[in-house]
Protein 1
Amino acid sequence: MRKRCALLFALLLFVSVPAYADPGSVPNGPWLKDAQKMKLKRLHDYEELVKALHRLERVTDGNVQLEVIGQSNENRDIYMAKVGNGPKKMMFVTQQHGDEVMTTEAALNMLNTLGTSNHPAIRNMREEVSLYVVVRANPDGSERYWRYNYDPDAAPEYGSEGKGYDINRYHAPDLTPDQNPVPEAAAIRKAYETYQPHWVIDFHHQGTYKNEDGRMITTSVYWPSHPDVQDPVRRISKQASMVIYDTLSHYGFAEVSQYPGGNYQGIARNAYGLLGSGSVLVEFRGGIGQKSGGKIIRTAYASMFSMVESVSEDTISEYDPDQAEETIPTRGAPVDGGE
């Protein structure tokens, strides 16, 4: 584990995020206030994201390959970036919710590292793993900076009437892509069926929480909780959760907890577990504007990188899944000013 953490620490030094002076207080705010506007100028809008992805494809000499897996309701292409050609297949999904932006920025940094580095450990990852990254699953919602996709005709069970659907409620195994009213969820499902990844990791943001010691929760993880998920699938999902917990526990900028998720089968975490893949939800602190954005991007990058590395080296199998519920603490109380 020390070798893995040393490499990750070195790579974190080169993550391209703005320099912030994070306050030293506990619970280490600040967070976005209701009356405070979020500035998005330094983040990639849709056109900038497309340019960045195509640039990655060019500068990595084909190590990063792009595929359009579908279109949004406003006909924006939904991109999946592939890196590596190994037998161990993984799918990452970022920004199903349009206002949860930092994970997409982390994914761009990770793709740059995996695509451009000639470090022997990175080359080994490309040889051992095939990684498929759905980069910004919700481009329409991102442009509006809201949770849902964009569908003015929507009268959804999960979402907002006249605005759109909550994409992360429409992955149920019995909902085929042709039947799915949510094109973004249908595109993810089609890509899943095409590539049959062994792991699906879904990255989100949550509100602001603290643990019993008053430290800010930066990350929460959870595995499939639907009762019909097969035990071997649940076990490898818990192992993946332990990889992220163990990795982030080595860094002073991260505090990890269990996410208190539900059993609804339409949530990606449960749906892809029911379909037979190891599946993990990863939630990072959100609702913070740009004030702590650099730290969140680094945390997300570390989570993503640790999963690829542990799968490539098979160190993921060293974790005891039975320890996950005992080792990873439950999430604490919301902080005043958070969600």
Protein 2
Amino acid sequence: MIGLEDVYKVVEAMVPLYVALMLGYGSVKWWKIFKPEQCDAVNRLVCYFTLPLFTFEFTAHVDPFEWNYAFIAADVVSKVIIVLVLAFWAKCSTKGSYCWSITSFSLCTLTNSLVVGVPLLKAMYGSMGVDLVIQGSVFQAIVWLTLLLFVLEMKRSGLDISSTPSSTEGDSPARTVVDPVAKFNLEGGLEMMVSSSRPSFWSLMRVVWMKLAMNPNSYACIVGIVWALIANRWHFEMPGIIDGCITILSKAGTGTAMFSMGMFMAQQEKLIACGPSLTVFGMVLRFIAGPAAMAIGSIALGLRGNVLRVAIIQAALPQSITSFIYAKEYALHADVLSTAVIFGMIVSFPVLLAYYAILELVPC
């Protein structure tokens, strides 16, 4: 049962995030310390240094041999359900959009497991809840955030290629060619209609993979899980000098991400940057659609009892901060993701308590 001490622990974990957020906001809005181009530089610092090191550090310290793989499989099933629904909507609906499908996937699936999830699930279900939420967080970093990064990089690379003028002149009349990725119809022109240069699907993939190879976010979690497998299999310990080099920046990961979000908010005309309707839309995806898909996946995989309860509650945790950093870096609905993070953390506590109370009454 959750007591006042448990509530305090959750508040204790969340308040420092809002302090960093307000400092970032004030440094731009009130004190005029940073200019817009400097704000972009801070976001890139977070995206390419502090977040990858933060991801590597917490991934490297897990024990994959002790994971609950039925729980991981249920997570995969829930994400596949969401992807299929969003793909169907984007392709078959007149209002469908692949760009909004990417953002909706982030809103439905990517959670802030470590900051809010660990203290809350510990209060609800003890060490078992903590273990499962950490497993989900690591798997999210390895698979879903990497997949999101791949799709965002493909979107940006496709736009870059489609905007490149043809270098060939005097050939046969230019023909419009639409390859499988033009089919993506990513808002604003990713339906690549190019002339005689006609880049193929594989040339686009080559560009994407080259850019991902230079992005530490794409392999920080992979390197971390490889180290975790080796360390736990043969009982290695990370040398102190390497651990120190990683820790010195990784500890700043979450704080600098919130600081960057505050800077972004300060540059918007309204406090609720995306407007009330999109805010409600984001909250519905975060706290209803995501947990519902997880419930379906968990029941389908045979999860029962407290494991099923933890699976549903951890899917209703507030929005991942990393999802905002990626949205800002790749210029895709950063206003929606920033609002989802900020308001999600505010409303998450009563929502999660409601889920906890309801699930305790329902036989699982």
